[in-house]
Fold:
Amino acid sequence: MPTNELTATTLADLSVVASHPSWRGFTLHSLVIVAMYRCAACGRSSDSLQVASQEGGEELLCPRCFGHLVRTEQRSLPAWITDHIRPSRTNQSIHSGTSPI
Structure:
């Protein structure tokens, strides 16, 4: 029986062309082909040529959630992200980073 749910994809399952420098514990990856996955932060199904991942983790973030992290000026993540990503590691990464602006 078909389902509308996407199987969770980890970074190890994807063909990465390039990984961009880490920012606050997150890395943006450019992919060889469009990947279909569920974002670990917002829970939405996504398909894109770029994904973000947290250092040391396999969960994927969609470009929209990663963009929100980049635009945010504060040193803490919004609750809707910290509720879905390992909070202790996320807070540690955020507080040790520097502002990209």
Observations:
- The first strand starts at residue 16 and ends at 19.
- The chain has one domain: 11-88.
- Residues 11-88 form one domain.
